[in-house]
């Protein structure tokens, strides 16, 4: 972890703890993807509870709710505890996708294709930001209710810009400061200004890669609505879960586990129909770019025992445990030969 | 305007239009101050309509709604117009206060006094941000529904920090870029990190002064729930509206209009009971600091003919019109002697 520590030290003169984990909360995992702007409340709550459990240093810590706002007209609830115990290792960043928020507005207007000066695109830019920030606020609130000190950080509001859809400017020093202060930044895919095409959509997956490069977390977890990466669409009954993928220095990847001689490297992968920012293919490419840095990436299903183990960093440093269901993507250098 | 133009040019190599106006939308004007987290929908809608009217270059422009999200479970409404006319001079910034949002959470936990590592303060920091960003989202949506291309920009997410409550770091280049792209940034009072006391509340009034110094708008408008600054509490039937105040180079201010020999400089001023960031006194001090720069400041009541004239910049460059009710605060150099 020496490399990680030295990177974080540049953010602040005091020695901060190294970043433990960046979590990508897939839009498909916490929204109802076929119902416009509908949160899957059960899954979201389960995620927040698991994140809190992964952060907890002791098992007895009482949850101190931090959402003191009205919920659907209800009264505000504040715990009576004046100074509750707070025993969480909060050194996490959450980045979420849009799911059934934002995509409709973005694709209806073509925000990702640019041309902000066209009235329809400008309206779509505004409408997309309204939709994704609505989701962001709900996720921040759900985390706060579980006692996770979450703070919404919109990429657009952070001044992040792209150049032909690639990140051009994305200072993360304020994210480092928030982490150092014991807050959990919650970012999201967002509509942003683009230097060449005026505007575009910056996806959560691209944000994850950028933050991983800057902040060098111990591990990265992608939570989605399937167990991981399969050799064919997971709806196919013969689909095989790829448990471990190694990425070499050139970014090429190969399947380590299971050992399947007949498998081509080019596995068939599913892309959600409404996903304008790329589906599983983008995810593997972004995950591979992170693994190349020597950072383990775990892709698994939200709200399962497997996601809790991944969030806790218990999937292991050498070989992936047999009873863990998910896909680990890691640098070829760190993969122990079978 | 030469000074203003040269200042804005530093933001972008292309020559941007000078900033026309920064509007402070007082929390008291758009929330029900005695009802926790309750928006005054009528006043908010009226403000959005007036801002749009002040921006309109032609009177026939059709409103193209830009909020394509569900409102309380309703269906999403998108106008069928493929490429509507868009004839607005959008060169405005909106900064709003918190009103009945945020203040309760901040004062319950003492966020403005610092000490973020205390669990109660940390919870209050999170809760305050949830409350004020909820209000911000609603204001952005209300503006978007009136066809104003609004984008929420949280000071905390922008990485703005304070040092013992004064602004320490607050880069506004991304706000200049948003303006240049024809978007209307909507900022708000926020909980932020403080270099000396860990955290505090950055008020909307302080944000206004900072942005005015950086971006040199033609004029600044403070919209509140009373007509302007009075010589005593406006609930007093003998209260006299101070229509014009001059500020000298040292920041001292004197009442120009009406000419009232008996008036001391130290007018009695009202402060709303729940306002943790300072009331009318702070407002006058911040307004005076802006006026010193040669920028006219108009304080008036939201949702009136007077606020519309102020937003349009029609209050005049020399003497304030007799039929305009409000308080103009301007540099002594620019005040024509009566």
From TrEMBL, chains A, B:
- The answer to whether the entry has keyword Zinc is no
Which residues does substrate bind? Answer: 98, 103, 204
What residue stretches are annotated with the Aspartate/glutamate/uridylate kinase domain?
Answer: 89-300
Q: Which Pfam families match?
A: AA_kinase
Q: Which UniProt keywords apply?
A: ATP-binding, Isoprene biosynthesis, Kinase, Nucleotide-binding, Transferase
What family, per the record? Belongs to the isopentenyl phosphate kinase family.
The name this protein carries in UniProt is Isopentenyl phosphate kinase
Question: What species is given as this protein's source?
Answer: Dioscorea cayennensis subsp. rotundata
């Amino acid at each position: 972890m020496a490399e990680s520590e030295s990177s974080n030290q540049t953010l602040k003169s005091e020695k901060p703890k190294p970043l433990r984990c960046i979590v990508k909360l897939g839009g498909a995992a916490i929204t109802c993807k076929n119902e416009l702007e509908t949160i899957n409340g059960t899954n979201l709550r389960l995620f927040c509870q698991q994140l809190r459990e992964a952060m907890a240093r002791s098992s007895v810590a009482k949850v101190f709710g931090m959402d003191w706002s009205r919920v659907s007209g209800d009264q505000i609830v504040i715990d009576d505890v004046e100074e509750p115990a707070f025993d969480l290792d909060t050194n996490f960043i959450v980045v979420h996708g849009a799911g059934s928020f934002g995509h409709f507005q973005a694709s209806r207007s073509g925000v990702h294709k640019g041309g902000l000066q066209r009235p329809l695109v400008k309206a779509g830019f505004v409408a997309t930001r309204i939709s994704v920030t609505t989701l962001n606020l709900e996720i921040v609130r759900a985390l706060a209710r579980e006692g996770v000190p979450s703070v919404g950080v919109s990429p657009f509001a952070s001044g992040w810009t792209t150049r032909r859809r690639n990140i051009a400017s994305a200072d993360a020093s304020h994210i480092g400061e928030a982490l150092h202060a014991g807050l959990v930044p919650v970012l999201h895919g967002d509509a942003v200004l683009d230097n060449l095409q005026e505007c575009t959509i910056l996806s959560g997956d691209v944000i994850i890669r950028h933050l991983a490069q800057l902040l060098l977390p111990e591990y990265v977890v992608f939570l989605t609505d399937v167990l991981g990466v399969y050799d064919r669409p997971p709806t196919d009954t013969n689909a095989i879960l790829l448990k471990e993928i190694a990425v070499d220095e050139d970014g090429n990847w190969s399947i380590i586990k299971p050992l399947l001689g007949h498998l081509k490297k080019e596995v068939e992968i599913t892309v959600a129909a409404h996903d304008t920012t790329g589906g599983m293919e983008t995810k593997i490419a972004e995950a591979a770019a992170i693994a190349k840095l020597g950072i383990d990436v775990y892709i698994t299903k939200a709200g399962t025992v497997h996601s809790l183990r991944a969030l806790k960093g218990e999937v292991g440093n050498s070989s992936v445990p047999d009873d863990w269901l998910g896909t680990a993507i890691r640098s070829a250098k760190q993969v122990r030969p079978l």
